[in-house]
Design goal:
- With 233 residues, this protein is of the alpha+beta class.
- It has two domains: 57 residues; 164 residues, Beta Barrel (Porin).
- The protein contains two helices and eight strands, in the order H-H-E-E-E-E-E-E-E-E.
- It has an eight-stranded antiparallel barrel with strand order 1-2-3-4-5-6-7-8.
- The protein is elongated.
- The N and C termini lie far apart (93 Å).
Amino acid sequence: MRSCFNIHTRVYCCHASALWGPPRHVMATARPVKNMSRMCTVIFLCAGLIGLSLASAEEPSSTWIGKHTIGLAVGGMLPIRLMEGQSSKLYGVAVHPSWRTSLTEPIGTNWWSGSVGLGVEGAILGIAEPTGAYAIGLTPKLIYTFTSFGRLKPYVEGGGGPLWTNFDGHIPEQGSDFNFLVWGGTGASWDVTAQWALNAGLRFSHISNAGTDSPNGGLNYLLPFVGVSTKLF
């Protein structure tokens, strides 16, 4: 009888467990585990959303048209005498503040893919040799920026415009204070951030009065330069 009672008791306990679920101490242990898993899921989702938003904020916009950039370049003038009448060795310092805007999206899909830009640049020249002199000018410019090299952006550029000087009586090649500056060159910028970039390059520059006065021997110089630029909007 005792063995039968034990058997019936075990069967009854099994049926009761099936009907009413696991004991309370088991359920009390399971609830915190479920809550912890839910909290971890929510935390991971929030962290993922924050990471995506930060990544999208750091990525530069792929739109080039209408982007405005200002910059400042500084370099040393190295004389080049190409004509017989060019006797002066022009040494000095050149400072070029600039502004430009992009006119096109990148053209092409090969290594030469790039964007065309239009800008204007100031020219402030402090000449030390052959004698102390100065020049101040303003030159519109065109620039083609290669866009297929990631952060590194090589470019070619050129421009020209009026140049007001005190060359008459100081620089023997030029008989007037009003001259013109024409230049062309190449360089590269490195995007330090999505907004700021460092620049370096080399230009060839020519100064003359376009035959409006005499003498007009002309002046030439190379300008290795370094600079910094920033995107406005």
